[in-house]
Amino acid sequence: MPVLRLLRAVLHLFEGLATCALVFPFLGHDARQARIKSWSRRLVGLCKVDVTVTHAQGAAMAPRALIVSNHVSWLDIFVINSLAPCRFVAKSDIRDWPLVGWLCAKTGTIFISRGKLRDVRRIYQGLVSSLHAGERVAFFPEGTTAAQGSLLPFHANLFEAAIEAQVPVQPYALRYLDDRGNHHPAADFIGEMTFAQSMLAVLRAGGMRAEIVILPTLETGTASHRRDLADAAHAAIDAALGGGKPDLVSRSAP
């Protein structure tokens, strides 16, 4: 693994920390979003991850939506933010990660504790408020990372926020590929692997392609049920990842 690439990535993380601490307090919302997008693009670039965007037939990126995606790696947040910054919901464990945990907190990530009903209710109200304010909100309904090629069941609770805020749900399917179009094993972040171990694996890989498949929105209304939305999102993402045969029509760099 090139030592220079690791050094550059670490320096980039420190640059992000300094920006959040010293610059963000003086910026408006749009300026902060532009900084997050630019910083995320540079991070995935330093990790030698090329990002491409594919649209399913009839799909376009919704300006206001609750975004849901399958969860493969810590890279997912930064890959999606390199396209359009979102306010993410993430498990509370991430807050304790060196450097990245603090950085995620300062860029608006909402942390949720597993198994705490009161915490879910608090997060839910925060999501509704953010969606009403026009923010892009995203979460990983599997609740944890899964190895590529598998898709865990979706938790339905937070889908209720889209119903109350009256915004659509937009599924994204995310995968990391090698130069032959196969799943890249270095992207998997599962089991007892630490963030540091995963980051080193990504840097040692010497390059991979992250593909985001943007899927059609799922409309919500007062008659919608969160379980139905969760099941529909799961089916759409599963099909895009290979469980079915979605009609993909375009590919472009973000």
From TrEMBL:
GO MF annotations, alphabetized: 1-acylglycerol-3-phosphate O-acyltransferase activity
Record-linked SMART domains: PlsC
Organism this protein belongs to: Noviherbaspirillum galbum
GO biological process, one term: phosphatidic acid biosynthetic process
Regions crossing the membrane: none
Keywords, ordered alphabetically: Acyltransferase, Lipid biosynthesis, Lipid metabolism, Transferase
Protein name: 1-acyl-sn-glycerol-3-phosphate acyltransferase
UniProt domain Phospholipid/glycerol acyltransferase: residue ranges: 65-177
